[in-house]
Amino acid sequence: MQIIADVGGIPGKDCRGFCKYCYFRKVKESHPLGCRNCSPAKVGCETCNEGVAETKNEFIPPFLVASTVQNTLMMGEFRDSDLKINISGGGDVSCYPQLEELTATFHQFGIPMHLGYTSGKGIDDVQMASNLINHGVEEVTFTLFAADAGLRKKWMSDPNPEVSLEAVKRFSESCEVHAASVIIPGVNDGKVLRETCVKLEDWGAEALILMRFANYTHQGLILGNEPLIKDIEPHNIHEFEELVREINNEFNLRVTGTPVCDPETEAPFAISLDKNKAFLQFIPEITGEATILTSSVAAPYIQRIIDNLEAGDKVNVYAVEKDIGCLITIEDLKAVDLKELKETVIIPGRAFVHDAEAQKVLSQDGVDRLVARGPDKLTVDGEMSSTLTREDVIEKELEAFRDLVGAINFFGIQKNI
User: Fold this and answer.
1) DSSP characters for 342-360?
2) Is the dihedral of CA 113, 118, 122, 124 positive or negative?
3) Mean pLDDT score, 144-173
4) Within 13 Å, how many C-alpha atoms sit on residue 273's CB side?
5) Cα(321)–Cα(390) distance, integer angstroms
6) Reduced DSSP (H G I as helix, E B as strand, rest coil) percent helix, strand, coil of the chain, to 5
7) Per-residue model confidence (pLDDT) at position 382
8) DSSP β-ladder status, 413-414 and 288-294
9) Which domain holds residue 312?
10) Model confidence, pTM
11) What is the CATH number of the domain that holds 402?
12) Is residue 263 part of a domain?
């Protein structure tokens, strides 16, 4: 279990400048997207406006961060021997001015620390890495991009790429390091990626998370900032999954990918492979009729699960163009073929749409549809599954699908009554 120590920070400002591939680069001023946290009568709230772009989350003073964590520890009952404090934020954690001071304070709590996503761009002297280790940092998630100083300087705006690479080497020698690389075709894939993996193995890193580069709205750029880089065509889903599996086979690293895949646990949607219902038997019978509206990546997996549950006569799966369900917006719903929808539509729990707007848009053909939200997540991606076993993934998916079936049976028209 991890307790989050949020240090704040604004992308681009508190990370020594945007990486060229950064999701938040080129963000334009946009209107509120809408989400489940909005009031019923108004589209827009802090979550789906400033919260999405993370434009006003300044670095938080260390005494406030420490006191928040201390209050959490005092108010909760934590018996987990693997308890860690996860230091994370909207900027680059290594750029937090009081990082060493903060870790020294947490060290007094006697709880090990995990440095959340950092690129190391804030490390000017490798001794800082040693100091953090001495303060109790035991786990680091490090955005590497490539083990090539020139590429880091060019693509990440890293002012001291050699120091950053020496820092991740030192972390790897003493900590559990999960390296991460956004994969850009023709830049850091192919030979460069394999050279990076060789160095990670030599240094002693634990894992590598490959992250598919997003360059278009349908891939997740919902802040009006497409394309991030002109003339770059990201890997399609099938190409990316093949790359993840190849790297996993070639190297002694725990290799996962996002949005797909984890070769060890078969996430996302490991239970979609359960044709004999060894696990699916623990999901309740579907008695309601509904459409599951989801992303283009998730739809084939969910359809396979519905088929294996023998519920295709009651439930159909509709895929919008968006790759990621949590990033579905009202524009995706406007493009839906309403003839394919049943009277009840289940949308992703965290979709960026206002409930009233969703109901209005999906009922424009005269059918007064009921639009309800399903679970926040139906599976886990490579960022999370890299620390899980296959059994952990299956347990989480079964729990999520029990909740999904519960929503279908509650909101959908009953067919077995």
Assistant:
1) -SEEEE-TT-BS-HHHHHH
2) positive
3) 98
4) 10
5) 29
6) 35, 15, 50
7) 85
8) antiparallel
9) 270-414
10) 0.94
11) 3.40.50
12) no
